[in-house]
Structures are given as structure tokens and as C-alpha cells.
Specification:
Elements (H helix, E strand, L loop, with lengths): L2 H20 L9 H11 L4 H16 L3 H19 L7 H24 L3 H10 L1 H30 L8
Helix pairs in contact: 1-2, 1-3, 2-4, 2-7, 3-4, 4-5, 5-6, 5-7
Length: 167
Amino acid sequence: MNSKRLARIAISALLMFVVHVGLAGLPNIELVSLLILLYSRVWSKDVLFITIIYVLFTGIYWGMGLWWVTYLFVWPAFGLFCNLILKRVNDWFLLAIILGMFGLTFGFYFAIPYALYDPVYAFNYWIMGIPFDVMHSISNFAGGIFLGYPLSKVFIRIRDNSYVHND
């Protein structure tokens, strides 16, 4: 792995982490899903490394509770899903809908570790979180609609070194 690729992976993971922390005060509003989708489209083979490093950053910063165990499988799995399926889709409205659906199902994924201990508690945990999942869904959809295409163009220009620097 060359130093440019290694730096790109680290900076991409750090950008996700900084955006996550920056939006942490807003209820279930995040751009991590959108960034993972964009990274899978632009740096496809590195998205798994990026998501794993991001998860490590979040665990170090926020602590490694049961929620973090979910992060260990949700974010890399979403990155692989985006890499295998979504990177070939060019309709940003459809991608925004998929991002919204991912946000709507996010609470279900968080209930999985609880289901290993107490399935009834896990079901109740998931059902009580549905209002938060709806907000998550709306924010993912809005992020995909308003930021997806423009950020995609920026990342493609960075990847292709086609940005113009006028000083």
C-alpha cells in the first residue's frame, strides 16, 4: 500500500469521524452513511478499511459499549453493500431512498446484540426507537438528495486529480 493511498484512507476515516462528532448534538442526523456510499463509489476497494478505522475512532472517543459492537458490523457491512451493489447506481434519487431505508432500519441492527441476551427486550428496544429511526431516515434521504451528487463530483475530482488550484 503506497503512502498516498494510506493517507487517503486515514483522511477519509477522519472526515467521517469529524462529521459524526460535529453532528452529534442533533438527534439521529448523520452523514456517515452518505460518506460511506460516496467512498464506495470513488475508492471502492478502500471502503472497508475506511469504515473499520472510523469505527475504531468512534470507540476510542465515545467508549466501547454495546452500541459499538453494532458499529463493528453495521458500518463495514453497509460499506460492502454500497461497494458491491450501489456504486453502479447513478440515480441519486434512488440512492437517497436507499440511504433513507438504511436509516429506517438502523435501530433494528442495534437491537441484534440485545436479542442474544433477551429477545423481548430487543424487540421493545427496536420498537421504542422507531421515531428516532424515522428521523434518521429523513436525514439520510435529505443528505442524499442535497449533498450526494455535489459531493460525488468533488470526490471524483479529488480522485482524478482534476481539481484546479488557482493561487
